[in-house]
Amino acid sequence: MTDIKLGLKENWQQFTLLVLVNMLVGGMVGLERTVVPLVGTEEFKIGSDIVVFSFIIAFGVVKAFTNLVSGVLADKYTRKRILVTGWLVGLPVPFLLAWGPSWNWIILANVLLGVSQGLAWSMTVNMKIDLVGPKKRGFAMGLNEAAGYGAVGLTALLTGYLASRYGLRPAPFYIGIFYTVAGLILSVLVIRDTRQHARLESAQVTQQQLAGEKFHRPDLLWVFRETSLKNRNLFAVSQAGLINNLNDGMSWGVFPLLFIAAGVGLEGVGWIKAVYPFVWGLGQVITGPLADRIGRKPLIVWGMFVQALGHVVIGFSLFPPLTSGLAGSVLLGIGTAMVYPALLAAVSDAAHPSWRASSLGVYRFWRDIGYAVGALMAGIVASFFGLIWAVHIAGIITFLSGVVVLINMKENTPRL
């Protein structure tokens, strides 16, 4: 490992390529943000909110369980192989979304998308963390998530525009074909595996840095318990990640239907759906390095509170519908930008390099279960009380999640 070095400067070329790959990964999720809920209600005439949101539930559950095993698979088969596998699984997705003859085909597309995202996005996260080492994890995660969610926002806007001009299907999904082919080619031809970088960092962690803890290579069950419950920092981070994506899962299904019913046009809905992930993505260029400078906890706590404020703006219709949607989505994006890289970096701080990939997989399991929980919650609440109450409930839960982090988490940033 003498020719392998840790650091962003030392590995900037591979890091840049991984940022590009993650833009393509994120774009695949952006394909669905504006159009697919409307495909369910307008093209397939589905009247049940829970059935319409079932594609999000399928996506969230499958992606969560894929995240759980992705780290173990990466340690066994290398990060690059798992990244390539993720793209191979995702190849049929845009075709199913564009031409699937029934809602079951849309759900199948989201099962495949969940597997693809769980493998591909997890590997871009792990590979960037491997490359940069411990000192700039927040910065690395900021760039990674900025690229991914910036692409989500831009693709959501583009699909809304295409749908308003050419119809809900198939035109908005053509760009997904480009994303999958380009992502697969880049992953096969130019991305190099980074497992040796993780091994180098693991070798550099001394017994003093482990605070006297006897090192062992734990199994997945041990890592699951440690990340989910036993370690208070990891517990706080995991529940915050779940609630954060609960917001995303709720908004994914609810916002298109809510604002169309309020009289906002399809392009307007596209802007509302684009602003949230775009601000979320772009903001992480700032909040990622900030997490290295001031620590993870302040950004996580206040990020959850800002998201709760976004729900207030939307839920209580403080402005006309389009303005409320845009303003609330900006606040949701700012809050999520504060939270996202700090959460990933906090997991990396607390987990030993030798089981960090598995711990990140467990965290991402809980985080992406939030998609399913948010969509299921929204479907049930909307069925009984209306769509707007799904927004209210999400806001209350988000505020309480921030309080949990405030009480349980202790700062553990290496630079501090």
UniProtKB/TrEMBL annotation:
Membrane topology reported for the UniProt record: Multi-pass membrane protein
Highest taxon in the source lineage: Bacteria
Domain Major facilitator superfamily (MFS) profile: 1-195, 233-416
Keyword Endoplasmic reticulum: no
Keyword ATP-binding carried by entry: no
Transmembrane segment boundaries: 12-30, 50-70, 82-99, 105-125, 146-167, 173-191, 299-319, 325-347, 391-409
Gene Ontology CC annotations of this record: plasma membrane
InterPro entries attached to this UniProt entry: MFS (IPR011701), MFS_dom (IPR020846), MFS_trans_sf (IPR036259), MFS_Transporters (IPR050171), Sugar_transporter_CS (IPR005829)
Protein name: Predicted arabinose efflux permease, MFS family
Gene3D superfamilies: MFS general substrate transporter like domains
Keyword line: Cell membrane, Membrane, Transmembrane, Transmembrane helix, Transport
Subcellular location: Cell membrane
GO molecular function: transmembrane transporter activity
Organism: Chitinophaga eiseniae
